[in-house]
Write a structure and sequence with these properties.
By secondary structure, the protein is of the alpha+beta class. It is built from 16 helices and 29 strands. The strands form eight sheets. Strands 1, 2, 3, 4, 5, 10, 14 and 15 form an eight-stranded antiparallel beta sheet that branches. The longest helix has 20 residues, at about 400-415.
């Protein structure tokens, strides 16, 4: 049976990440960065594309697993007739080189274990030259070199390395896998047991800073830890997911690379971090944002590399069969060249939020914002590819226009709130009013009392639920309430939401997709804003029930199959979880779920 997406757990050193299956196999690992070539790519192919299984010889999946407290240290336990054993997996804080540490501990009986290491560089395509050197395994091919240090001897067979051993009560065996550029000397090995204690202390110290103390604390802290594990520490950029090409449609072609940073996440990210006590991380994210978008306003992109790289060309890996036959497998993301007007609103909103939360406000950022507004004033009426990056051609997407309004609104409010800053406030006010009037005229279907996906269409978009959150209209407006009812009626799948009607004419690709988890959290928020607190809480708690056994969420959920879909873990899903939990735990949940209402008084709070 294939390993389900939710059967994987995440370990990370905050520069790269690995996925560990319930069968004890690491099937995805990119070194040295999140977006580097994978040296284990069985996730998107088969075992011959690289993996590292460390488990009992009987081949069963682990009986139970968990993260150690509020950390990213994973413990998996097997219980069998032979006895019981625990495997601890983690990635220590990065020193000279990235490491993966695995520690086996016998708990009872005598358990026969096997380490099966099959390294394949270049996303499962390149078989390295493997030797025994200095008591370790050394693998090299082209620019990559990997060393395995262990007190378990390994032997080679079928282009893999095997280590068989037996553990009894109290026995421990350690394995340290280290990557480095092949032209450099081997870095010093880490002590696995010291690294374990240091890694636990780091995560416990970090998670202990969380200021959220509401009814969903465990879920919120786990989501925040996951987001921290998806943060590229040198720059503060947060990847949308740690994987590429996990399908939105099993067996289909909706397979994209999400190992980059999207501007659409900016406002949600900053709000979630600041409101839970992580001001330093919010500041790092804001600084990443300012560096990434620096330059000509007409060159603003929707996504960037983890260090702010602009070029992330999309290409296919034909030697990989895809997750459960979902092809093609893609690296890079061609959406980088799309026009998405919503990102101007996201950037303006995020930088306004940063000022409201007193995060290093400065005139340089405002000068950059004025440049963005100058470009938007001349281009907001153009069609674009929209928030969801459709590949079926540009349209006048309603959500994009609403976010263009957000950009103008935040420019006006910045000048009102910070009189020391200069700018043409009358022009921005006029632009705001013009966009508002057009959206209400062209993006609204009076016959059905709902806003629509794009001007003149009858289709809907779950992103329209954000209209009251961004302050475009109040939640009591009948057009907002009508849109909520229409979205529930037409986009609901067993109470969860699809993003929109996935017709190929709009999408440009074939197939369908599951319920989109971030949109489903937005539904919970929209119900809260509508005064339906119990209904909103019920949706939220159902969504919590979709998390896997270690609290992780992918991008989507296949209701019919009862499985998670899409790249994993998904930052958008975890950000939406955190923000929804914050709304529900607020003294006035209705007010807190509305950004327009809450942020008027944010400086005081």
């Amino acid at each position: 049976m294939p390993v389900r997406i939710e059967d994987y757990a995440l370990i990370s050193d905050r520069l790269s990440a690995a996925l560990v299956g319930r069968d004890g196999s690491i099937d995805w690992l990119c070194f040295p960065r999140f977006d580097s070539d994978a040296c284990f790519a069985a996730l998107l192919g088969d075992e011959n594309n690289g993996h590292w299984r460390l488990a009992p010889l009987d081949g069963e999946k682990c009986s139970q697993r968990r993260y150690v407290g509020d950390t990213l240290v994973l413990e998996s336990e097997w219980n069998s007739l032979q006895g019981s054993v625990r495997v601890t997996d983690f990635m220590p804080e990065r020193g000279d080189a990235p490491d993966v540490v695995r520690i086996v501990e016998g708990l009872s009986g005598r358990v026969q274990m096997r380490s099966e290491l099959r390294l394949r560089f270049g996303y499962g395509d390149v078989i390295p030259w493997v030797r025994h050197l200095d008591g370790m395994l050394a693998a090299v091919a082209g620019p990559d070199a990997v060393w395995l240090a262990s007190d378990v001897p390994h032997h080679g067979r079928d282009y893999a390395s095997y280590g068989d051993f037996t553990v009894g009560p109290g026995d421990r065996r350690a394995f340290v896998l280290t990557w480095h550029p092949s032209h450099l000397h081997r870095p010093a090995s880490v002590d696995p047991y010291e690294a374990l204690e240091e890694t636990r202390r780091f995560w416990e110290g970090w998670s202990g800073r969380c200021t959220y103390d509401g009814p969903y604390r465990d879920a919120v802290v786990r989501s925040l830890i996951t987001l921290k594990g998806m943060t590229y520490e040198p720059t503060g950029g947060i990847v949308a997911a740690t994987t590429t090409s996990l399908p939105e449609d099993l067996g289909g072609e909706r397979n994209w690379d999400y190992r980059f940073c999207w501007l659409r996440d900016a406002g949600f990210t900053l709000a979630a971090l600041v409101k839970t006590g992580y001001t330093e991380e919010a500041r790092d994210w804001r600084e990443w944002l300012l560096r990434a978008i620096a330059g000509s306003p007409d060159r603003l992109q929707i996504l960037y590399g983890v260090a702010g790289e602009r070029r992330v060309p999309e290409f296919e890996l034909p030697w990989l069969s895809g997750y459960e036959g979902s092809r093609p497998v893609r690296v890079g993301n061609g959406a980088v060249d799309q026009l998405q007007l919503d990102v101007y609103g996201e950037v303006m909103d995020t930088l306004w939020l940063a000022r409201a939360f007193d995060i290093d406000a400065n005139e340089d950022a405002w000068r950059m914002q004025r440049g963005l507004m100058s470009w938007l004033e001349s281009h907001w009426q153009e069609p674009d590819e929209g928030l969801w990056e459709v590949r079926g051609g540009r349209r006048q997407f309603t959500h994009s226009k609403v976010l263009a309004w957000v950009a103008a609104d935040r420019a006006v409010r910045t000048l009102q709130d910070y009189p020391e800053l200069a700018g043409p406030i009358e022009r921005y006010e006029a632009l705001r009013d013009t966009i508002h009037a057009e959206v209400c005229e062209k993006g609204y279907d009076a016959e059905r009392n709902t806003f629509t996906q794009y001007y003149g269409s009858r289709g809907l978009d779950a992103a329209l639920l954000l209209i009251p959150q961004v302050g475009f209209l109040p939640p009591t407006d009948e057009r907002v309430r009508g849109t909520l009812r229409a979205v529930q009626r037409e986009l609901s799948v067993d109470g969860f939401l699809r993003r929109y009607d996935t017709t190929e004419a709009v999408e440009g690709v074939s197939g369908d997709e599951g319920a989109f988890l971030a949109c489903s959290f937005w539904l919970a928020d929209a119900l809260v804003l509508d005064g339906q607190l119990d209904a909103g809480r019920a949706v939220f708690e159902r969504l919590l029930g979709l998390r896997n056994d270690v609290g992780l969420l992918a991008e989507e959920y296949d209701v019919a199959r009862g499985r998670q879909l899409g790249n994993y873990p998904q930052a958008y899903s975890h950000l939406a979880l955190v923000n929804s939990a914050l709304h529900l735990a607020a003294p006035d949940p209705v007010a807190d779920a509305s950004r327009e209402t809450t942020l008027d008084d944010v400086a005081a709070t």
